[in-house]
């Protein structure tokens, strides 16, 4: 079992972050964190497939085209519901074929949903909805990627890279919101990544990013006064803009992190420390 070797570790450091010639795919890639991750990967030189469900096909295509115009690389939008294993397999294969001429290098399993219910009140359906997207969907995405990467490597091609968007909710219990299903799904994602990183070391690196509070639509549903509670617990004292995360994803996607697998990169303004 050998982790992919760095092509040229002695080269000047900024070259380690280049994704030129690579093909990437991001689930939940048309808004929030996923959109900024897609933009970051494209800015680093990768062709990017952005997957979406709720955005209209017209808006998704125009988002892809805007990133492509500003970065000069090909960016294409694909509709894909990550809760359908079949749809995920088909979409990843199609994106590899259409964008990467058969090769896929980087897959970011980022799609996720949140809901707030007390532990005593969850219906089976409410609990299952969270697990279906955040854990099962992330697994289907990684598995489809892993199958492509293994085949690629057996055929003499490049090794792959999976990055999960987990959460600090994998590590701590957020308050005042009650979201046991979300927190449990994210903790499972972190352990899933650790397991796959060991199993797949021959053909892929697998890592997680665990963001703290990021200013996206996901947080907008919460009452304003909750922010004061959060800020009192975050040493950084503010929310993070989604674009502040893109460097971390480029780091994990690139050879700058060539010896890193099975890691969980926590980016939370110090929230998990006190
Ligand atoms: P968002 O709500 O803007 O983005 C979520 C994305 O997931 C959307 O593009 C949505 O269409 C997609 N999605 C949802 N269900 C889907 C499905 N069944 N199939 C395919 N795509 C689906 O929220 P945000 O914040 O950008 O979330 C991205 C990821 O970051 C999620 O996994 C979330 O749990 C995670 N996260 C967010 C934090 C935050 O404070 N905003 C903190 C830590 C983690």
From TrEMBL:
Pfam families per the UniProt record, alphabetical: adh_short_C2 (PF13561)
GO biological process, one term: mannitol metabolic process
Top-level taxon of the source organism: Eukaryota
InterPro entries listed in its UniProt record: NAD(P)-bd_dom_sf, Sc_DH/Rdtase_CS, SDR_fam
Keyword annotations from UniProtKB, A to Z: NADP, Oxidoreductase
GO molecular function, one term: mannitol 2-dehydrogenase (NADP+) activity
Similarity-based family: Belongs to the short-chain dehydrogenases/reductases (SDR) family.
Name of the protein in its database record: Putative NADP-dependent mannitol dehydrogenase
Species name: Lachnellula suecica
